[in-house]
Specification:
By secondary structure, this protein is of the alpha/beta class. Helices cover 42% and strands 14% of the residues.
Length: 311
């Protein structure tokens, strides 16, 4: 475990993504993965009120519901660092004070808990003044319903403005940033957000850390994976650069006798200010391929090899 930036939270270096719970993993499968993650020492779980509204037959809230039922069944809420989000679900859209208050109560109910450890603005809402959004988050923190707040999918200028508003008005401050960042999605984060995160002491918790499955090595030229729900997104990386990244990962994983996903996540963990990349697992077999990343320290030579392949 390690401190999560400037918060009082201690977390495992791999955050378990909850987007699969109630979607590609049913309740029983989700419980099995969650139990295995905790048994391996994990304690940091990420979800959102909108998960998994994008799945056929789902409305949203399924992931939080499954997770809440598991927490109650295991009686382990106090040992879990729980992150969820508000603002991106079409049933609870935006970051108005009224929506934040209502969404937080809904999430607390589904999760079966009296507090959320890390509560994200899931995406920016330019229709609501930042002062109003941050005041609403501040109320939740002061009420003890939220311990810390964080931001996801913000541009660097808007995030800087939000931090300035919090400092000026004495409001709760975003303590973490969840950007889209991985070996094949580097430019947007590294161009502006990385410097801001460093300057503002924000812990970075990348989502799509395995590039929708591409960085597992499962998707390669010629493979027929048409039945995979993530195949379309993953195949978008199968260009010349993507093939070079896979070759570098293959080389390092083979020499270390570890999985390709573990090397992919270890690269992220080695980046400045990254606290814990977020990765999901539908089965315990998938989970066992990502957990070793918590114990891998890549050498400078290995990091350079991956850097050259991925730029």
């Amino acid at each position: 475990m390690a401190p999560l930036g400037s918060t009082d939270l201690d977390v495992f270096p791999i955050c378990l993504g909850g987007n699969v719970f109630g979607w590609t993993a049913d309740r029983a499968e989700s419980y099995t993965v969650l139990d295995a993650y905790v048994a391996a020492g994990g304690n940091f779980i990420d979800t959102a009120d909108s998960y998994s509204a994008f799945a056929a037959g789902n409305e949203g809230g399924e992931s939080e519901t499954v997770l809440g039922e598991w927490l109650r069944a295991r009686g382990n809420r106090d040992s879990i660092v729980l992150a969820t989000k508000v603002g991106k679900w079409d049933r609870r859209p935006g970051l108005s004070p009224a929506n934040i208050r209502a969404a937080a109560e809904d999430s607390l109910r589904r999760l079966g808990t009296d507090h959320i450890d890390l509560y994200y603005a899931h995406e920016d809402d330019r229709s609501t003044p930042l002062e109003e959004t941050l005041s609403a988050f501040d109320e939740l923190v002061r009420a003890g319903k939220v311990r810390h707040i964080a931001a996801s999918n913000y541009t660097a200028p808007r995030l800087a403005e939000a931090l300035a508003v919090s400092d000026r008005e004495g409001l709760a401050r975003y303590r973490a940033l969840q950007p889209h960042y991985n070996l094949v999605e580097r430019a947007e984060y590294e161009r502006e957000l990385a410097g801001l995160a460093a300057a503002e002491n924000l812990t970075v918790l990348p989502y799509y850390a395995l590039a929708k499955g591409f960085l597992t090595g499962k998707y390669r030229p010629g493979n027929d994976l048409s039945n995979s729900p993530r195949a379309t997104g993953a195949r978008s990386y199968l260009d010349e650069r993507g093939v070079k990244v896979l070759a570098a990962l293959d080389e390092i994983a083979t020499l270390r006798n570890v999985s390709i996903p573990a090397v992919s996540l270890a690269w992220l963990i080695a980046q400045e200010n990254v606290g814990a990349p977020i990765a999901s697992a539908r089965t315990t077999e998938q989970l066992t391929t990502i957990l070793p990343a918590a114990e891998i320290t890549l050498t400078e030579v290995e990091l350079k090899r991956l850097h050259i392949a991925s730029v």
